[in-house]
C-alpha cells in the first residue's frame, strides 16, 4: 500500500490513473490491458445513504485491494456522520487503503451531515487518524480568488494533494498551478483529464459536471469532421503540452469506459 503523493513523486516518465464509479464490473477491471498507478472510486451518498459498510464503493474498493491495486476512495460530506466515518476509516486501515479524496458532495444538505464542509471533514480525519491517510481535494482550474483561498485552507488542515477538474487547454492548468504557488500551495497538483472522441461526448460531460470550456474549443470540436482532428487528438496534444511542465502523471475521468481509455493510453507510450 502506498500514498498517492509517493506514487506520483517517484514517477520519472508518463503514468496515469483511472476514476471509476462503484458500478464498474469486476470483469471490466480484470480485462484491463493497462495498469493504472491507482484507481479512484467515486462516492454517491444519496444512493446508499451511508447506512452500513455493505455499500458499492467499499465493495469495489475491497475487490481492487484483493487484486493488489492501489485505491483512492472518495468520501463526501453528504450523509456523513462521525460514527459512520470512523467505521469506514477503520475498515480502510484493515484492507490497507491509505488514500482519500474529500469532497462536499453533489446537492449537499448540512441537515444530514455532521460536517458542514470538506474542511471540517479533513480536520476530523486528521484528528482521528493522524498522518495515516493521504488526503486529496478537488481543484477548479478557473476558480475565483475566494475558492483558491478555501483550497489553501484545506491544504493547511492536512490535504496532501490537489486533483483538478477536467480542462481542455494547457494554459488553464499552468495558470492554476502558478496561482497556487503564489499563495504557497506547494502540494502536487494532479491534472484531471476527460478523454472524448465526439462533440456529443464533450457536451454531455460539460453539462453533467458544469465546467467551462472555451468557445474556441467547442467550435473546433464541433467542426472536427472538416478539420479531421478528433477529440482524441486534442487530448493527446493537451497531455503533451502539460508534460512540457514536467508533469508526468495524469488522472482520467473514465466514465467506466475502460477499454476506450486503455486503447488511448496504449497509443501514448
From TrEMBL:
InterPro entries: FAD-linked_oxidoreductase-like, Mehydrof_redctse-like. SUPFAM superfamilies: FAD-linked oxidoreductase. GO terms for cellular component: cytosol. GO terms for molecular function: FAD binding; methylenetetrahydrofolate reductase [NAD(P)H] activity. Keywords: FAD, Flavoprotein, Oxidoreductase. Its cofactor is FAD. GO terms for biological process: methionine biosynthetic process; tetrahydrofolate interconversion. Pathway: One-carbon metabolism; tetrahydrofolate interconversion. Pfam families: MTHFR. CDD domains: MTHFR (cd00537). The keyword Cytoplasm does not apply. Belongs to the methylenetetrahydrofolate reductase family. This is Methylenetetrahydrofolate reductase.
Amino acid at each position: 500500500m502506498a500514498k498517492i503523493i509517493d506514487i506520483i513523486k517517484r514517477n520519472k516518465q508518463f503514468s496515469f490513473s483511472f476514476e471509476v464509479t462503484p458500478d464498474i464490473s469486476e470483469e471490466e477491471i480484470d480485462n484491463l490491458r493497462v495498469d493504472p498507478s491507482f484507481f479512484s472510486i467515486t462516492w454517491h451518498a444519496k444512493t446508499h445513504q451511508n447506512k452500513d459498510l455493505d455499500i458499492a464503493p467499499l465493495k469495489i474498493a475491497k475487490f481492487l485491494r484483493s487484486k493488489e491495486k492501489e485505491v483512492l476512495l472518495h468520501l463526501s460530506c453528504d450523509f456523513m456522520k462521525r460514527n459512520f466515518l470512523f467505521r469506514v476509516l477503520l475498515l480502510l486501515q484493515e484492507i490497507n487503503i491509505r488514500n482519500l479524496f474529500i469532497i462536499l458532495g453533489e446537492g449537499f444538505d448540512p441537515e444530514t451531515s455532521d460536517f458542514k464542509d470538506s474542511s471540517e471533514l479533513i480536520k476530523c480525519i486528521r484528528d482521528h487518524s493522524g498522518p495515516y491517510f493521504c488526503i486529496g481535494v478537488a481543484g477548479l482550474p478557473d476558480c475565483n480568488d475566494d475558492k483558491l483561498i478555501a483550497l489553501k485552507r484545506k491544504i493547511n488542515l492536512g490535504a496532501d494533494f490537489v486533483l483538478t477538474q477536467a480542462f481542455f487547454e494547457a494554459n488553464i492548468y499552468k495558470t492554476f498551478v502558478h496561482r497556487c504557488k503564489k499563495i504557497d500551495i506547494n502540494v502536487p497538483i494532479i491534472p484531471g483529464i476527460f478523454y472524448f472522441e465526439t462533440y456529443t461526448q464533450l457536451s454531455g460531460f460539460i453539462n453533467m459536471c458544469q465546467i467551462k470550456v472555451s468557445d474556441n474549443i467547442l467550435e473546433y470540436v464541433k467542426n472536427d469532421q472538416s478539420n479531421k482532428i478528433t477529440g482524441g487528438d486534442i487530448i493527446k496534444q493537451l497531455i503533451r503540452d502539460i508534460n512540457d511542465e514536467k508533469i508526468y502523471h495524469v488522472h482520467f475521468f473514465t466514465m467506466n469506459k475502460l477499454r476506450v481509455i486503455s486503447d488511448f493510453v496504449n497509443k501514448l507510450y
